[in-house]
Amino acid sequence: QVQLVESGGGLVQTGGSLRLSCAASGSIFSINTMGWYRQAPGKQRELVAIITSGDSTNYAGSVKGRFTISRDNAKNAVYLQMNSLKPEDTAVYYCNFRTNTRLYWGQGTQVTVSS
Fold first, then answer.
1. Which of 36, 69, 106, 110 sits most deeply, having the most CB atoms within 10 A of its CB?
2. Are 18 and 12 contacting, i.e. CB atoms less than 8 angstroms apart?
3. Contact by Cβ (8 Å): 51, 73
């Protein structure tokens, strides 16, 4: 069973940077979109950023200009560069791959931004 494996989370101070990575443990074909979501305590999971197979991107308004999503199709991987981090960015971050027939989720990685 193919799984998505995330890495790169951690504790950082306000204004700092982190780079999240997510890679599939095996081959996944025809990935349409790759994305990052996050869920803070007591809140619903929300979209952070998404990138299509054509490299079009879309960002939540709260992260636009600070976060950058990118993908490596050869590696079945997606990345999230997070700059100018704020305490309100604290959450568990999940990656997501969508094909025509299936949705894959990573296990989540904790990002904590201290004030």
1. 36
2. yes
3. no
Phi/psi of residue 61, nearest 5 degrees: -60, -30
Query: Would you tell me how many other CB atoms lie within 10 Å of the CB of residue 70?
Result: 15
Query: How many residues are present in the chain?
Result: 115
Contact 93, 6 (CB under 8 A): yes
Going from the C-alpha of 57 to that of each of 43, 50, 68, 79, the distances in angstroms are 24, 6, 9, 12
- Per-residue tokens: 105: 């989720």
Mean pLDDT of 75-96: 97
Provide φ and ψ at 22, rounded to 5°: -145, 125
* Three-class DSSP category at 89: helix
Q: What percent of the chain has pLDDT over 70?
A: 100
DSSP 111: E
